[in-house]
User: What shape does this take?
Amino acid sequence: MPPQLKTLLPLLAVFICIFLVARHFLIPESFGKYGHYRADSMDETAAIPINYVGKEACAECHDTETAKLASDLHSVLSCEICHGPGALHVADAEKGILLKPGTREFCGTCHSINPARRTEVINQIDTKEHHPEKDNCIDCHNPHAVWELKE
Ligand code: HEC
Ligand code: HEC
Ligand code: HEC
Ligand code: HEC
Assistant: This one.
């Protein structure tokens, strides 16, 4: 064995010891219980409160808006994708603050031109060029009124 290696060996042994001790303290207790992950993370995830309730829950009280949303174009969307999570509001209608999302910026999250999106799936406009004379998109396209306009 070359002499350089001989001097390095103790150093290597020290590193391995440090690694093993550190590993012992750093790996969470429940790691490996079921597999190569921390078992406690499942309970922690399950304990996160659910904030979304789904479309049917909204329809119970807002049948008018639900019917109007059937503009057949936005009808595929959930209410909460635009209005935000609704659990608080469903529990207490006065309390839950829901978004009223009609701004150029908000609608642009789905409709502003983006080469990664297919126009066949979703129509896109340049939010800076498309009718900039109005501040808000809903001045012309109200998701709850398109249906009426069509008739
Ligand atoms: C138990 C009945 C009930 C359910 C269920 C319900 N709402 Fe409401 N919602 C109300 C009432 C009542 C108001 C009016 C409250 C007010 O004006 O203070 C309201 C107001 C609103 C408003 C207008 C808020 C504003 O500032 O003018 C929006 C938007 C809304 N609801 C969306 C939803 C959505 C989305 C859902 C489903 C996640 C939903 N609601 C479920 C009863 C309900
Ligand atoms: C594409 C986005 C979008 C979706 C999806 C959507 N909304 Fe709305 N909603 C809006 C906008 C924008 C307004 C504000 C209209 C306004 O200010 O005139 C609004 C207003 C409302 C209001 C308040 C009406 C008022 O007179 O103040 C209610 C209630 C509401 N929506 C319920 C719903 C329900 C229930 C659903 C699902 C069935 C839904 N919305 C889905 C965008 C949406
Ligand atoms: C979560 C994504 C999403 C959001 C947010 C959204 N839309 Fe849409 N929108 C769609 C989809 C999907 C369609 C149906 C496919 C299509 O025609 O582009 C659609 C269709 C439309 C159309 C009809 C386009 C056509 O083909 O003639 C208009 C106009 C429109 N949206 C305006 C709005 C406005 C205004 C807002 C903001 C209040 C908004 N959208 C918010 C997804 C969205
Ligand atoms: C002054 C009224 C007006 C405003 C404000 C407006 N639009 Fe439009 N939009 C129209 C008209 C009219 C059309 C029909 C096609 C055209 O003339 O450009 C249209 C078409 C569309 C289309 C379909 C495009 C296509 O290729 O068929 C989408 C998507 C759309 N608008 C989204 C929006 C969004 C998002 C906003 C807000 C950033 C907005 N619009 C603001 C009047 C308006």
The chain has a mean pLDDT of 89. The pocket of heme C (ligand 1) is lined by residues 53, 57-58, 60-62, 79-80, 83, 86, 89-90, 93-94, 98 (CB under 6 Å).
